[in-house]
Amino acid sequence: MKLIKHREVARAKVEGVGALLISALLAGCAASPEADKQGPGAAETAHGAPVYNIGCSTTLQPEHRVELDLVDSLMEASEHYAALAQLESVSFDTQQHWLRWAQLLAEVGQLEYAAEAFTAIAERCGSFEAYHGLGIVKVKENELAEALQALARAKALAPAVAEVRNDYGYALLLNGEYGVSAFELRTAYELSRQKNRVVANMVAAYYLNGGKAAMSQLRRELGLSSGQLAAGEQLAKSLGRK
């Protein structure tokens, strides 16, 4: 498994040149507090290659919350390069630091390396967040078989997380599995506190699985508006189905 130094990712993307991206060997979860403080840019070397110790701790100290809140605020403002720069200025003391790093690699267009990073975190820590992130990246890479495998694992680990069920349902939708997709997306809709983020996917799955009759069922059972139904039908048709 190779990992790329996030500093090299940012530099290559910002400069827009074919800079060489430095690969790295991957070590297991850190075995000591000192190892936990290693970040991607502060690796030791073995046989001439950097070795990264992924920390699996989910315990956030106050200083970690401050660090990650700043990164999150930049991400919410779509300032992903700034978020990556801010993240690389701190030690990667928790799994959340590593997950943000992998997510930001995807946000700056480095999908291959984001997938490698999420895979490494998933293998070492076994968290649903890592499998979920990997599944999203694989959907973006149009590798649906791998996406479905990762998202199914995330669902098994966290069956009541709306975002996981939504993304799994959407991947099933793209894969033409409309009945199962409708089930997953209905579950995501009922779990979600932000139902507008899920409703179009759910309506599209129902439409593709059962046509207008299924959409009428949704209107009766959930009280969906004409606009919500129309948006879902439009999404279904954009996927190439009438």
UniProtKB/TrEMBL annotation:
Q: Whereabouts are the TPR repeats?
A: 128-161
Under Gene3D superfamilies, the record lists: Tetratricopeptide repeat domain (1.25.40.10)
Source organism of the structure: Marinobacter pelagius
UniProt entry keywords in alphabetical sequence: TPR repeat
Cited PROSITE patterns? PROKAR_LIPOPROTEIN, TPR
Q: Which InterPro entries match?
A: TPR-like_helical_dom_sf, TPR_rpt
Q: Reply yes or no: does the keyword Transcription regulation apply.
A: no
Per its record, how is this protein called by name? Answer: Flp pilus assembly protein TadD
